[in-house]
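Section 5: illustrative case.
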């Protein structure tokens, strides 16, 4: 796997003094240091981070004392995040939702984001007024979107972990858009 552009740039820069350290809040900073660590609120301490997987209390290499180790760890974590993003895209691409009107005259299928992928009408719609047909389509669409949101929530829970903060954010964004979510 090729190193990420940022990692390549940092590897080039690490030949100059003071590229990165961990600030007093525990956030890893990838900026030049100014003066002594206390002047820039930086330290040599290696504070735990919350990796996407693995032990959240595991110490990470310090950019100040072990820049090559820090860059290797950073690259590994970025590659894991990239893989997880690809996994989530694949999971969501497979999610669909199908809904039907109360009488079954209209059936709608949508993707995870609510995009219409299919719509079917029975011959019964020929005897239906345009306004009634529009209501049936909206009803079927609403059911399909709700089913897709449930499927997307279940798919993401397997990746993010049910009850995780990231999962709560995902479900909250679905609710905010009016798509349901667990």
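Designed sequence:
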């Amino acid at each position: 796997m090729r190193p990420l552009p940022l990692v390549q740039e940092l590897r080039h820069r690490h030949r100059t003094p003071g590229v990165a350290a961990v600030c007093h809040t525990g956030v890893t900073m990838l900026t030049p240091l100014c003066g002594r660590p206390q002047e820039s609120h930086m330290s040599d301490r290696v504070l735990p981070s919350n990796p996407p997987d693995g032990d959240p209390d595991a110490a990470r290499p310090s950019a100040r004392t072990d820049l090559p180790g820090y860059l290797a760890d950073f690259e590994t974590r970025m590659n894991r995040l990239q893989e997880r993003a690809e996994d989530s895209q694949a999971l969501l691409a497979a999610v669909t939702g199908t809904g039907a009107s109360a009488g079954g005259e209209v059936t709608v299928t949508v993707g995870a984001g609510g995009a219409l992928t299919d719509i079917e009408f029975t011959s019964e719609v020929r005897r239906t007024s345009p306004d009634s047909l529009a209501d049936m389509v909206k009803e079927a669409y609403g059911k399909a979107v709700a089913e897709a949101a449930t499927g997307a929530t279940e798919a993401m829970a397997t990746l993010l972990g049910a009850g995780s903060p990231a999962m709560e954010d995902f479900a909250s964004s679905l609710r905010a858009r009016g798509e349901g979510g667990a």
